[in-house]
Amino acid sequence: MEELQDNIQFQLTDELIEKVEVLVEDQNDKELKLLLHEYHYADIAEVLDELDHDDAVYVIKLLDSGLTSDILMELDEDNREKILKNLSAKEIAEEVEELDTDDAADIIAELPEERQEAVISQIEDEEHKAEIQELLAYDDNTAGSLMAKELVKVYETWTVAGCLRRIRGQAKEVTRVHSIYVVDKEEKLIGRLSLKDLIVAKSDQKIADIAKDNVDFVHVNDDDEDVAKVMAKYDLEAIPVVDDNQTLLGRITIDDIVDVLKEEAEKDYQLAAGLTGDVEADDSIIELTRARLPWLFLGLIGGVGAFIIMEGFQEAFSQYAVLFFFTPLIAAMAGNVGVQSSAIIVQGLANDDVKGSVNNRLIKEMLLAALNGVILAVFLLLFIWIYIGELDKAIAISVSLVAVIIIAGLIGTFVPLFLDKRGIDPAIATGPFITTSNDILGILLYFWIAKLILGI
Amino acid sequence: MEELQDNIQFQLTDELIEKVEVLVEDQNDKELKLLLHEYHYADIAEVLDELDHDDAVYVIKLLDSGLTSDILMELDEDNREKILKNLSAKEIAEEVEELDTDDAADIIAELPEERQEAVISQIEDEEHKAEIQELLAYDDNTAGSLMAKELVKVYETWTVAGCLRRIRGQAKEVTRVHSIYVVDKEEKLIGRLSLKDLIVAKSDQKIADIAKDNVDFVHVNDDDEDVAKVMAKYDLEAIPVVDDNQTLLGRITIDDIVDVLKEEAEKDYQLAAGLTGDVEADDSIIELTRARLPWLFLGLIGGVGAFIIMEGFQEAFSQYAVLFFFTPLIAAMAGNVGVQSSAIIVQGLANDDVKGSVNNRLIKEMLLAALNGVILAVFLLLFIWIYIGELDKAIAISVSLVAVIIIAGLIGTFVPLFLDKRGIDPAIATGPFITTSNDILGILLYFWIAKLILGI
């Protein structure tokens, strides 16, 4: 049992980090290798992410590229960038030789323009080099930018026996064989089969006879998020990628899709929280400020807007100072309702389950907001009436609250739907954007209606 | 090429839905089968989700269980529930017979207690029944509740040839063979190999010689989110599940993990937006009210708190009405900063990349908030000074803003860290919770400091 250890039990400890730092300090290469070889490359990457990057570079240069290439892929992007800066084009090329084409292309794409050529020219395996250059040519966020060239391909005319013999060669360079793709002599994708089918089949059967022709595939220019949705929806663990002529170009595996899904979810979450760009807790104060300040400015402008509105109503409400004390409540409710309704729409759009017309959505949201608004308004009315004892003000404030909540709900529903129709990411409509606009509008509406009701 | 169609091109059209509705109306079973058999079960599920559920039940009863069992798994949970209500225990058992044990157990678990027994008793395949009962016994959100019993298992003593012969049998009932798990005669997991390894190996080699002994695995009681993290981190597409004795119990495949990751991300997103429970845009107004109202109540209470505070300062600030006009600004900034800082912590905790001590976090956040606060305060100061022309008020308001932003940032950072340490989901600390508490505290702080500076 010794060599079996539950991966969930790996914990990044300060002891381990220190141990590595000391060994690097002492340049005790032998011990360092012994220690690190006990760990999975993803765990070693976590350790290196914690070292200052001279030490990390030392470790990368020490271990053999078979291992370090995998470690590099697992590092935080900023750390990887720092480390690659300290490696020669030749050293990077050696790492790249060890990687699948998709990872290789990703790493090279992260390098500054001028270094990319230098690294590529150092790649010895000509086929590998050509494939990487092909992948680098595809646009970001397309199936082409996600796919790998490594796959197992057989011709329809082969027999099971001949096939098994031949794919032994191909399979060696493919980390995981999900599907075997069947092509005709023009390299066009015409079907697929699994290793399982091959093993279960009789050895003299023709591939054409046992191949499944209902093969799923995507086009090289399809959007990567669409590819992710399709693979998740159809429970696919790999999907082949073709061009306009149905020619098999590569395949996308689900582990890449997991990353796409995670990134997309994190992006939406951050936008909802008022953070631009992909920031992490460990980023520098400058990076974090860059992500946070723009939204705070928006909030500042909104607040100034609210001030101007309230000042405008100062005269009219000189006898009704109490109304001003409820503006934070009005603003908060308008903001909360707006975020709730927009978040539901944004998530629905992301999952493709927002159906029916925009009007139906708005009518539904109006009913929903009205229901919530009335319930809340009743409590507010009772509180004000009892607390201040002036029914007219209580009614004015409560009725305005209902109106504000309804409008806030409608805006929160409409804006993301509108942005989505315009091809803009609806996620930007959540968070500070919606709260700020709802704050101003809510307060304005509040005073208007109160004025009306109180007959000022 | 005809039979190949790009799945990304499937669009759920009203035409298709109507076509199905008409065919159901006319009870035109033949046409209906012909039409639906053109589509993937996941697509058919999308259609059924749009039908009213009598029609959906009709379709389910029409198609054969081999197909409908897959369709059922893809339906929205509420729709599936409605449909299962209309199927007899025998009919549900037939569907269950077609499903892998993990899906089968999930479906049965969704049934009301009393029906579960009835359905299980109707399952004919005794082994399948026993396995499902075993899975039903594991707690929710554990590896046991995620795993399937279907896997390919070989004994270390077998030869490659004998192994290939024997797994032909096992493989038939396993949809996807990710790994072949090697066990000793006590059924203990001692290694793994891939079909690829088996095919590449010589037929007279012993399994023990070609098996990899560095097999990853999880314990049956491990938390499902931890399993998801591990599989994503180590890029695993399947992981075996063992008990305390290292006995191989089942395996978890990555498609289940994709669901876990998506659900987790959606839950955090909804909490940040002030939504409880897993609601969708298409849920009923009642369901949506249940999800939204509690948070709005929180907001209402916060607003009332703000009112009471402002009323308390009314006397003192009778000459400074203008200060009250900035309370929405103060509240908004306190809320935004709180959400930003808490969101970064929540996401960091979810990705296990919040390292270092709590104190360091707080110090960093304080510096960050101070930097942002000062920048914003300068603009506010200039605006008020120019607009109102009273420097003392401008200073009082701006300085308070900085203090409010710092406190808001600290609360937003501390609360989720604190909840996490206490084993409470930190995600509840984002959204309305943090904005509401920050609103009140912010406004209180604002008046205190203004009072101090203005020497009232």
From TrEMBL, chains A, B:
- MF terms (GO), sorted A to Z: magnesium ion transmembrane transporter activity; metal ion binding
Gene3D superfamilies, per this entry?
Answer: CBS-domain, MgtE N-terminal domain-like, SLC41 divalent cation transporters, integral membrane domain
Q: Name one GO cellular component term.
A: plasma membrane
Tell me the membrane topology, using the record's own terms.
Answer: Multi-pass membrane protein
> Domain of life of the organism in this record?
Bacteria
Q: Which PROSITE patterns match?
A: CBS
Q: Which UniProt keywords apply?
A: CBS domain, Cell membrane, Magnesium, Membrane, Metal-binding, Transmembrane, Transmembrane helix, Transport
Q: Where is the CBS domain?
A: 147-209, 210-267
Q: Where are the transmembrane segments?
A: 293-310, 322-346, 367-388, 394-419, 431-449
Chief subcellular location: membrane
Its subcellular locations are: Cell membrane; Membrane
Q: Partners and quaternary state?
A: Homodimer.
Main function:
Acts as a magnesium transporter.
State the similarity comment. Answer: Belongs to the SLC41A transporter family.
Query: Can you name this protein?
Result: Magnesium transporter MgtE
State the species of origin: Winogradskyella flava
